[in-house]
């Protein structure tokens, strides 16, 4: 498994080094995994609306296909693919969105997402002071966003340190391979493994994903 390039200290989440030390001390698997990936870490990209829009576009299709559709979607909206605005999405009619390769359902989801942001039904400016479950409740009220998507958003965009996404198949597979010799694991067993990771369960989850694929996980 290849070593990854070092990440400048300024780009590390504030808790990352503390989390690495904590996990290596508390968990035998983490003690072996963490050194394999150098200074690589979680990194937030984009803004909240764009990140959530990308998650909707990418549902149930391959990463390659999702990127192609995303680029056509951004072109249809007339906005840089790195930062879309809700008003720009709402200004485009559904037939034009469909021409970008989006299903009718995904068009509905993206428009609902845009309306939630435009109308102030989500509160990005207040998220920093809100707990994880409150943010999840706010996000799953948007069509097309379930708990898994909300948890990925907490991990990858808000960089919340203690999220354990038990609906994530990669996490369950990684726990199976690393802790149970490949035997299938239940959510309850995964939760029990994750108890030793607190208060840095997001970080441990990230390393479990990396054990399956050495390329950085992005969202």
TrEMBL record:
Record's keyword terms, sorted: DNA damage, DNA repair
Domain of life: Bacteria
GO cellular component: cytoplasm; protein-DNA complex
Gene Ontology biological process: base-excision repair, AP site formation; DNA alkylation repair
Enzyme class: hydrolase
UniProt catalytic activity: Hydrolysis of alkylated DNA, releasing 3-methyladenine, 3-methylguanine, 7-methylguanine and 7-methyladenine
Pfam families tied to this protein: HhH-GPD (PF00730)
Recorded GO MF terms: alkylated DNA binding; DNA-3-methyladenine glycosylase activity; DNA-7-methylguanine glycosylase activity
EC number: 3.2.2.21
Family matches, as InterPro entries: Alkylbase_DNA_Glycosylase/TA (IPR051912), DNA_glycosylase (IPR011257), HhH-GPD_domain (IPR003265)
Record domain HhH-GPD: where: 57-213
Family under the similarity heading: Belongs to the alkylbase DNA glycosidase AlkA family.
Protein name: DNA-3-methyladenine glycosylase II
Species name: Rubrivivax rivuli
């Amino acid at each position: 498994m290849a070593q990854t390039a070092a990440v400048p200290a300024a780009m590390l989440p504030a808790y990352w080094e503390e989390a690495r030390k904590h996990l290596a001390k508390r968990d035998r698997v983490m003690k072996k995994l963490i050194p394999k990936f150098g200074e690589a870490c979680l990194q937030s990209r984009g803004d909240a609306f764009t990140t959530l829009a990308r998650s909707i576009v990418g549902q149930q299709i391959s990463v390659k296909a999702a990127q192609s559709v995303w680029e056509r979607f951004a072109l249809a909206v007339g906005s840089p693919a790195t930062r879309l605005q809700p008003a720009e999405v709402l200004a485009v009619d559904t037939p034009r969105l469909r021409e970008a390769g989006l299903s009718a359902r995904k068009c509905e989801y993206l428009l609902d997402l845009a309306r939630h942001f435009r109308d102030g039904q989500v509160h990005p400016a207040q998220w920093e002071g809100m707990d994880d479950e409150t943010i999840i409740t706010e996000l799953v009220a948007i069509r097309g966003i379930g708990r898994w998507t909300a948890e990925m958003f907490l991990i990858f965009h808000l960089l919340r340190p203690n999220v354990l996404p038990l609906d994530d198949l990669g996490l369950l597979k990684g726990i199976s391979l690393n802790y149970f010799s490949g035997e299938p694991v239940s959510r309850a067993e995964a939760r029990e493994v994750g108890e030793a990771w607190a208060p840095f369960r997001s970080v441990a989850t990230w390393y479990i994903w990396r054990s399956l694929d050495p390329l950085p996980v992005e969202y």
